[in-house]
Amino acid sequence: MISRTVGLLHVRGYHVGTMQFKYGKFDGQPFPTPDMLFPSREVVQFILQYGKEALDAMSHLSQEDQQQYIEALIAAGLLERDEETGELHMTPKMVHAIEHESLLEIFEDMKQGTRDGHPTAASGRNDERTDGTKPYEFGDAISQIDLGATMRNALHHARKNNWQPGPAPGSAARSTPGCARIPIARDDFELHQTEGLTDAAVCLLLDLSGSMMRFGRFYYAKQVALGLASLMRDRYPLDTIDFIGFSSVAEPIREMELPLSMPKPVTIFDHEVRMRVPLEQAVQQPGNIPQHFTNLHMGLRMARQVLSGRAASNKQIFIITDGEPTAHIESNPAGGSEMLYLLYPPSEQTSTITLKEALRCQQQGIRLSTFALIEDYWGMDWVGFVDKLTRLTRGMSYYCASGDLSSILIESYLSGKKRKSYVG
After folding, report:
1. What are phi and psi of 171, to 5 degrees?
2. What digits encode the pLDDT tens for the residues 231-269?
3. Which contacts (CB < 8 Å, 24+ apart) does range 130-133 have?
4. Staple 210 to which of 18, 191, 273, 292, CB 3.0 to 4.6 Å?
5. For the chain, what are the domain ranges?
6. pLDDT bucket at 307, cuts 50 / 70 / 90
7. Please, what's the b/e burial string for 139-148 (b: 16 or more CB within 10 A of its CB; e: otherwise)?
8. Alpha carbons 101 and 106: distance in angstroms, whole number
9. Long-range contacts: 300-304, Cβ < 8 Å, 24+?
10. In CATH, which superfamily holds the domain spanning 199-415?
11. What distance lies between CA 340 and its chain's CA centroid?
12. Neighbouring-strand partners of residue 341
C-alpha cells in the first residue's frame, strides 16, 4: 500500500508549510489529525493567560498522555525543547497558530455586519463598488462608468432638446437600419460609487502595569493584538503593525515574544510614591525600581518614532489601558540622562506631559484611538484623562469591558472611521 504525506495543511483556514509528497510502504500507523498537529484552543488560552509560566508547567507534565501530546507538538514543529535544561520554547509556527486561533475566537464573538475595509473619500487602486452612482468629474476612472445610468441621462437630455430618432446628419449612408444615434454629452456620464482602500501603519500600545492582571484584561489585550497581526498578514499585507508595551518604562515587543508577555507584578503598596531615577539606569537595571507604573508618555514617544519610519498613507496608534498615567520622562536640568518620574497618586504634571506628547503625534498626522477598560466602576475618575486626550488629538475613545475589547478594536480597524465617506 502506498501512503502520501502532505506537508501543506488547511486547518480552520490556517495555512502551514509547503506541499511535499513522500511515497513508501504503509506502516499501519494512522495519519496525523489536526488535534495532533495544532494546539487546541485550551492550550492557546492557557499560554495567553499565564505566559512563560504556562510553558514551564507544560515542560514538567508527568502523565503519559500529557507527555505524548507535548511530544506531538514538538514533532509538528510547534514547540522546541532545550536539550540541556528541558525547557519548552515556541516556534514561529506556534506563534502564527496562536494568532490565527485568536482571530477565529474574536470573529466568533463579533456582531454580524462588521465592514472589512479601510474606507477613504479618495479612490485608489483597491477601490470597491458601493451602492449608488455619481456624476463624472475630470480625472475619474472611466472604468467605473455606469452604462445604464449614462444612457438614461443622454436620452433624458436629448428629449428635452427635441431630439428625434434617426441617423446623424450627413451620415445616412453609413447608418445601420433600425438603429438611431443618441448624442452623449460630458454631463451625461454617470459613474459607480466607490470607496478606496488605503494602506495603514498601526502601532499598538499595551498597558503592562500591574492592574492589567485583574478581570482578565491582559488576556483579552493579548488576544486582540495577536488576532490583529494574523488579520493583517492574511488580508492586508500592505499594512504594518508594531507592538509597544508600557509600564514604568516603555519597550518594543517582538511578535514572537507577545504570547508570553505579562503585566509587571506590583512590588510596593505605599499610598503615596514620589520617585525620580535616571532613565538610563531604569532601562539597564529594571530590577532596582518598581515596574508596575503606567508610562504612557514614553509609550507614545516611542510609537511616534516608530511610525515616522513607516511610509503608509494612514498612521494610527491604538492604546489599550486601564488607568491614568503614573510615570513620565523629563530632561535633566543638570544635563546628562533624562529622568524618569514615578508618581502615585497620578499627578497633573504627568498628565500634562503625556498630553503634550499625544498632541505631537496628532500634529505628525497620526490618529489616536484609546480603548479604556472600565470594570473598576468605583474608580472611574481616570476616564477624564481619556476625554482630554481624545478632544486634544481629535481621536476616538472607547469605554468597554475587557471581554468586549477584541470585537470593538478589530471593528475599529476594519471600518476606519465610524461613518461612511463617499466620492462626490
Report:
1. -125, 25
2. 999 888 889 999 999 999 999 999 999 999 999 999 999
3. 130/193, 130/194, 130/195, 130/420, 130/422, 131/193, 132/193, 132/422, 133/190, 133/191, 133/192, 133/193
4. 292
5. 2-90, 121-164+181-197, 199-415
6. very high
7. ebeeebbbee
8. 9
9. 300/205, 300/354, 300/357, 300/358, 300/361, 301/250, 301/329, 301/357, 302/244, 302/250, 302/252, 303/203, 303/205, 303/242, 303/244, 303/361, 303/366, 304/357, 304/360, 304/361, 304/364, 304/366
10. von Willebrand factor, type A domain (3.40.50.410)
11. 30
12. 276, 328
Dihedral (C-alpha) 369, 373, 378, 383: value to the nearest 10 degrees? -10
Q: What is the pLDDT of residues 78-121, one digit of tens each?
A: 999 998 888 999 999 999 999 989 988 888 766 443 333 444 44
* Contact yes or no for 253/261 (Cβ under 8 A): yes
315 pairs with which residues across the strands? 201, 366
CB 222 within 8 A of CB 208: no
Number of H helices, E strands in the chain: 12, 18
* DSSP type of residue 268: -
Mean pLDDT of 108-136: 53
Measured CA to CA in angstroms, residue 364 lies from 198, 318, 352, 359 at distances of: 18, 16, 19, 9
